[in-house]
Design goal:
- The structure is a single chain.
- The chain is mainly α.
- The chain has a domain of about 55 residues: Up-down Bundle (Methane Monooxygenase Hydroxylase, Chain G, domain 1).
- The protein is built from 13 helices and no strands.
- The longest helix is centred in the middle third of the chain and has 21 residues.
- The chain is globular, with a radius of gyration of 19 Å.
- The N terminus is likely disordered.
Length: about 250
């Protein structure tokens, strides 16, 4: 009975996709992405790619979906597999459209995710590529709020590295590029200015203020995150995090 039901659902989904145009499939993927339904988004984008194999937009959106899916996995091998696929598709997107800010941003995000699954030595090495690709995205489009967000996170991550990690980086690579919490703050603020309804911008800004030992500013950022309307379960997760962090500051 269960198998028959699954086959029925699969048939209905297939019938929705069959005959759809590339534009319609991208729109379906975008709607699923906005709802944080990342597997559904990937399925729609893959169907679109089958119709337009050289589409820059579809390719980087597939990269984004794999990164999102990897974030939701708990199994380390599955996380790594999805992040590697995200990196592969981001690199393909750059080959198709080297002047696309979203292609370079997707690669920055994917490499950052791969770094999370790597050892300390590789993390230090990969962090330089995360920075370079985020900077390229901002060079191509200074109004890209997500690129500012990613660049801000890079600054915070590197600025708060342990002394051992910094020494390790200096020995192996002559050190890391300059990074500061002040630059992290600046780029999170810019991201929030460009997209003021994005909850995660304020959550990460609050975390940055905590690192800067500015609890009142952190509280204000978390309160802003909680005041916004959540659009999906991912947003609700950000707000739950902001709420817990706010409690520790009160």
């Amino acid at each position: 009975m269960k198998t028959a039901f699954l086959l029925l659902i699969l048939g209905l989904l297939t019938s929705c996709v069959m005959g759809a145009t590339v534009e319609e499939l991208i729109a379906q993927g975008d709607a699923a992405h906005d709802a944080a339904e990342h597997v559904a988004a990937l399925t729609a984008y893959q169907s679109a790619l089958a119709l337009d194999a050289k589409s820059c937009e579809i390719t980087w959106k597939i990269s984004r979906s794999y990164a999102d899916i990897g974030d939701e996995k708990t199994d380390q091998a599955e996380r790594t597999e999805n992040f590697k696929k995200a990196e592969d598709f981001a690199r393909q997107a750059i080959e198709i459209c080297p002047n696309s800010d979203m292609a370079h941003l997707s690669l920055s995000i994917a490499i950052g995710r791969v770094a999370l699954m790597s050892g300390k030595k590789e993390q230090v090495q990969l962090s330089q590529y995360v920075k370079a690709e985020a900077e390229k995205a901002l060079e191509l489009n200074p109004q890209n709020d997500t690129a500012h967000h990613v660049y801000a996170r890079w600054h915070r991550k590197v600025a708060t590295l342990s002394g051992i990690s910094k020494t390790f980086a200096k020995i192996l690579y002559g050190g890391l590029p300059p990074a500061s919490l002040e630059d992290a703050e600046k780029h999170f603020l810019k991201a929030a200015e460009l997209k003021p309804d994005h909850i995660n911008h304020y959550l990460e800004l609050g975390i940055t203020y905590e690192e800067m030992n500015q609890p009142e500013k952190a509280k204000a950022a978390y309160q802003k995150a909680l005041a916004l309307t959540s659009k999906n379960n991912q947003d609700k997760g950000y707000q739950a995090d902001a709420s817990e962090r706010l409690k520790t500051l009160n």
